[in-house]
Every structure is written in C-alpha cells, then in structure tokens.
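Run: sequence + protoporphyrin IX containing FE -> complex structure.
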Amino acid sequence: MIQINNMSDHHNSMTTEAIDTLEKIQGKFPGARRAHAKGLFYEANFTPNGNAIPYTTAAHLQNEAVPATVRFSNSPPNPTAADFLSPVKGMSVQFHLPNGTTSHLVSTTIPKFITKDPETFIDMLKILTADKTGHDKVDLGLGILNILKKYPERKNILHALKDQFKQPPISYAKLNYYPIHAFYFMNKEGKRQAIKYEWQPDEKNSQRKSIGTITSPDYLSEELHLRVLNGSVSFNLVIRLGEEGDVTDDPTDPWPDNRQKVVVGQLTLTKILFPNEAILFDPTIVSDGIELTNDPVLHFRHDAYAISFERRRKNE
Ligand code: HEM
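>> structure
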C-alpha cells in the first residue's frame, strides 16, 4: 500500500513538473491548453466500413455511422501564435458512441515520439527552457542544439522537427496524422490484436508552402474553414496490424513499413464549431473492444492532460 502511494506521488510530482516546464516555453496563457493551444473545432461523421469487425467489438468500428468532434491544432502553448510557427500539427477526435460514452484518438503529423519514457521528455523540456538568458521566449533553435548535445541518438527526429519549420503545410486537410501509440483490439471471441492507427487525407497532397508565400498568421484556420464550408473534408482511418515481436510499449518505434494496412472507415467534417476549451481529448479514453498497452508515455499523457485541463478550467 505504502509503495503504491509513493509511486503515485512520484508520478504526480513528475506530471506537475512537466506542465510547469511547458508553461516556461512561451509563458502562461490563462484558460488555454498547456500544449497545442491554438485549435479549430468541427462536427463530423465517422462511417465505418465493417473491415475492423474481425478485430474489434468497438461500437464505432462496426457498421453504423457515429457523430464525432474533431479538433485540429498547432503544437505551441501560445494560443495566438502564427500557424507557420508550429512544427507539428495535431488532430484530435472524439467518437460519440450509441451508449453515450466517447472513444478518443489524439494524433500528430509525426509518426513517432521523441522519447520512450516521460522522464527523458521532461529532461528535454528542461534543457529547452534552460537558456532563456534575459529573453522572455525560448530560443528553439538553440534549445534543440542543446538537447542534441545530451541526446545525440535523437538526431533524426529533432532534425525532422526543424525541417517542419522550414516547410509549413498548405492545409490541415492534406496531412497524415498518427496517434503514435499501439493499442489492442479485442474481437468477440476475445482475441487480442495489436494495432497502430493512421489518418490518411482523402485528397492526399504533401505539397508544402514556403514561408514567403504565407500572408496570414491564421492561414491554416482560414483555409480549413473555407474547405468545410465549400464541400467535404475527409480522412480515412487506417489500422496497421502488428506482428509477432512488434513492441507495443515504445512510442519511438513506428513498426516496419510493410505491416498489413486495413482501411476501417471514413471521417467527414460537416460543420464549424466554436472553440470549446471545456472539451478534453485524452488518448487513454477508449471504447470497449479497445485496450491500452503498457506504453508509459501514453499513461503519462492521461495525467498530464488532466492537470492541464484542471488549470485551464480554473482560468489559470
Ligand atoms: C510525455 C509526453 C507528452 C506530454 C507531457 C504532453 C503534453 C500535452 C499537454 C499538457 C497537452 C494539453 C492537454 C489539454 O490541456 O487538454 C497536450 C495536448 C496535445 N498533445 Fe501532447 N503530450 C505528450 C505526448 C504527446 C504525443 C506522443 C502526441 C502524439 C500523438 C501528442 C499530441 C497532442 C495533441 C494532438 C494535443 C492536443 C489535444 C487537443 O486537441 O485537445 N502529445 N499535450
């Protein structure tokens, strides 16, 4: 019993430390999410095609369409930062199930996370925020160089992040989004299948903008709103089937490319919604028929998002 208390205290103080450090990157923005603060909300429909039925009993992956709430986001903690200053984009989805519960998918445009464990991530955030030398904003370029000094083996992913700054996307509707973690699907015979998800834009086009051609700090919001008003924006939900030996608890390992892919349904945005900071997306909220792995980053996210939610709810 004592040991359990100690462990949860440790986890709690680590999560608070993570959120406090996120608040040092660009300062504190009362009422806003501590990461991915600038977001756009949409109403959507998700229509499953039945292909997931052999793998899961999840209600939204059978034959009936369900409503969904979708949020696209920039990654920085500043809710008014210009769209092109965000290295990574987010796409969060809540599927509204017939029994009144929800199942969530919280994804970004990069297919893998930067660390296997939350401790290293917090250490990286601290290195990033250490060198403020009189400025009120973190110098991200310098911060990344300092992280590389301590974690040279993370070179590829850090460079990929830097490259994203140079080439911002032309539309939220044309990107692939990855929920990163593995999940287990459970079918009606109780058989377990490890999977990773991927959202693929219906109209795929990887073309990016060069910064010089961007005229508005909100160019991505403006572009997506117009698209939704003018017609449909759709994404296919794809699962990749894990094989023997594929690790399920390491978000830095995206699995080999050749894993079998199955399209399981399509999400279509139907309506623009007012931003709603009272809505929480939590990647550990999943329906029956889906189970969580032991990935420590996934479970840490549950705690971190709850603290961030609590602070913004109190308008801190
Ligand atoms: C230790 C690792 C991580 C920490 C500490 C962290 C921290 C946070 C925090 C504090 C928020 C704001 C939550 C809220 O107020 O509702 C957030 C949002 C978000 N994070 Fe993470 N994150 C981590 C890993 C990841 C990973 C692996 C992904 C990619 C799948 C990700 C994608 C997102 C997205 C898309 C949002 C926006 C959610 C929304 O639309 O409300 N994060 N993160």
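>> summary
Residues 2-313 form a domain with the Catalase HpII,  Chain A, domain 1 fold (CATH 2.40.180.10). The chain has one domain: 2-313.
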